[in-house]
């Protein structure tokens, strides 16, 4: 087997999930040939990690050298793990230069960029895949299996509640995600996982979306209303941050220090901004109502300042009810806790038949992130995929349909109107 050649653009916190997997588990089928980033320090950190794994350092290219990187190193597939608002730039240019693309979620942040990507896929006939690891988590896969087997009949409604806690949830308000231009807000950046799961579970697509949302806990104004009198712009070097349980002290986390604190001199990016500072343009409290082609309706809630982290999804059907309850372990991205991402502390799947006693469905968790789902995803991406009756591999269409729910929700919040998903882009 000749290994597929990969180059990676964007060596921030998410990148190591992909490049360490290639190096540790898929060297026979995948070969990493280059790194690209706006920041040389972070590329050096990635290369240091490769050396720790016993692999030679890779050539590095700054962002403006992206075309030259492809010309010189001849990758067949580009892995895109940059900030969300730049995904479309690298996806489109990579396909124009003859490469396939694997992108981290969300595929992009708004309908204009989404249309540009869809047009590029059609024009170049290249493959674009989106890395939706939540599909592969055993409990989420089990729900798909149960619904495919008609365990509760035709699904008529879903209530989906996702809770982000004051460690992980707060982290979105410290970094680039806090600017909606960068991330599309949590309804795109985070909820793309959740809306994709609903599309996946129902084997359907959204039709109409209505939403409400606001910044109700984080931000300076909300802190002032609660009586806070001491403020700071970032934790590093701030005496006020010393007593703030929401502060992130990068110097206490070697990985954060090397990737971000030591890299600030190149781009001025502060990873430890105050969650109670000015300049936050995303919501922390959101509610969404969605109708689907299948006829089902979804009520969805996302709150980013809860005392525990996890989610509850309850399906009502013509022959019963299915309940999924998951408690997740919390973590800070790139804080040296990467193995905890999506780690499951407790999960429970219960089926309530219409005229029979309820029963709990056993779930077999595996090794690795997301209850053992991550290794299956990575094998799908970089190894030799096994036949999958659940059809978990996500295409660019899946990537688009997941973000379009969040994009429509953002538009509904702005306008106060119900949004027709078909009006956003043309397939």
What features would you describe in this structure?
This protein is α/β, with parallel strands linked by helices. The chain has three domains: about 5-125, NAD(P)-binding Rossmann-like Domain (Rossmann fold, 3-Layer(aba) Sandwich), CATH 3.40.50; about 135-220 and about 280-425, Dihydrodipicolinate Reductase, domain 2; about 220-265, no CATH class. It has 15 helices and 15 strands. The strands form two sheets. A nine-stranded mixed sheet has the order 14-13-12-11-7-10-9-8-15. Strands 3-2-1-4-5-6 form a six-stranded parallel sheet, with helices on both faces. Helix 5 runs antiparallel to helix 15 (about 395-415). The longest helix is centred in the last third of the chain and has 20 residues, at about 395-415. The chain is globular and about 65 Å long. The mean pLDDT is about 95.
Rg over C-alpha atoms, rounded to the nearest angstrom? 21 Å
Structural class: alpha/beta
Biggest sheet features: 9 strands, mixed
**Tally of DSSP helical segments:** 15
CATH architecture of the largest domain: 2-Layer Sandwich
- Say what the CATH topology of the largest domain is: Dihydrodipicolinate Reductase, domain 2
Q: CATH-wise, what's the superfamily of the largest domain?
A: Dihydrodipicolinate Reductase, domain 2
**Mean pLDDT rating:** 95
Distance between the termini: 35 Å
Q: Provide the low-confidence segments as ranges.
A: none
């Amino acid at each position: 087997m000749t290994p597929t050649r990969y180059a990676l653009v964007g060596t921030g916190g998410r990148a190591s999930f992909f490049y360490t997997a290639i190096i540790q588990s898929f060297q026979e089928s995948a070969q990493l040939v280059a790194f690209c980033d706006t920041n040389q320090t972070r590329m050096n950190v990635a290369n240091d990690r490769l050396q720790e794994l016993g692999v030679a350092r890779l050539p590095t290219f700054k962002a403006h050298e992206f075309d030259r990187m492809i010309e010189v190193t001849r990758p067949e597939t580009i892995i895109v793990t940059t900030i969300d608002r730049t995904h479309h730039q690298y996806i489109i240019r990579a396909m124009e230069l003859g490469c396939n693309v694997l992108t981290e979620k969300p595929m992009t942040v708004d309908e204009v960029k989404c249309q540009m990507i869809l047009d590029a896929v059609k024009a170049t006939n290249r493959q674009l895949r989106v890395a939706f690891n939540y599909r592969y988590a055993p409990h989420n896969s089990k729900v798909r299996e149960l619904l495919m087997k008609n365990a509760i009949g035709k699904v008529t409604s879903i209530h989906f509640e996702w809770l982000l806690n004051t460690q992980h949830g707060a982290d979105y308000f410290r970094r680039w995600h806090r600017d909606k231009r960068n991330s599309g807000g949590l309804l795109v950046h985070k909820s793309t996982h959740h809306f994709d799961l609903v599309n996946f579970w129902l084997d359907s697509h959204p039709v109409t979306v209505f939403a409400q949302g606001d910044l109700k806990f984080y931000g300076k104004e909300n802190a002032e209303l609660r009586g806070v009198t001491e403020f700071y712009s970032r934790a590093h070097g701030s005496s006020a941050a010393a007593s703030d349980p929401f502060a992130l002290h990068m110097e206490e986390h070697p990985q954060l220090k090397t990737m971000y604190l030591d890299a600030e001199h190149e781009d001025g990016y502060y990873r430890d901004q105050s969650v109670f500072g000015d300049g936050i343009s995303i919501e922390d409290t959101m509610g969404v109502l969605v109708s689907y082609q299948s006829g089902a309706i979804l009520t969805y809630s996302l709150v980013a300042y809860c005392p525990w982290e996890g989610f509850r999804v309850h399906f009502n059907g013509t022959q019963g009810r299915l309940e999924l309850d998951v408690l997740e372990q919390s973590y800070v991205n790139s804080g040296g806790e990467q193995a905890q991402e999506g780690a499951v502390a407790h999960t429970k799947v219960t089926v309530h038949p219409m005229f029979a006693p309820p029963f709990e469905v056993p779930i077999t968790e595996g090794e690795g992130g997301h209850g053992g789902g991550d290794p299956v995803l990575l094998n799908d991406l970089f190894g030799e995929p096994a036949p999958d009756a659940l059809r978990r591999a996500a295409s660019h269409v899946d990537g688009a349909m997941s973000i379009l729910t969040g994009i429509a929700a953002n538009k509904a919040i702005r306008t106060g109107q119900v949004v027709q998903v078909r009006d956003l882009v043309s397939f």
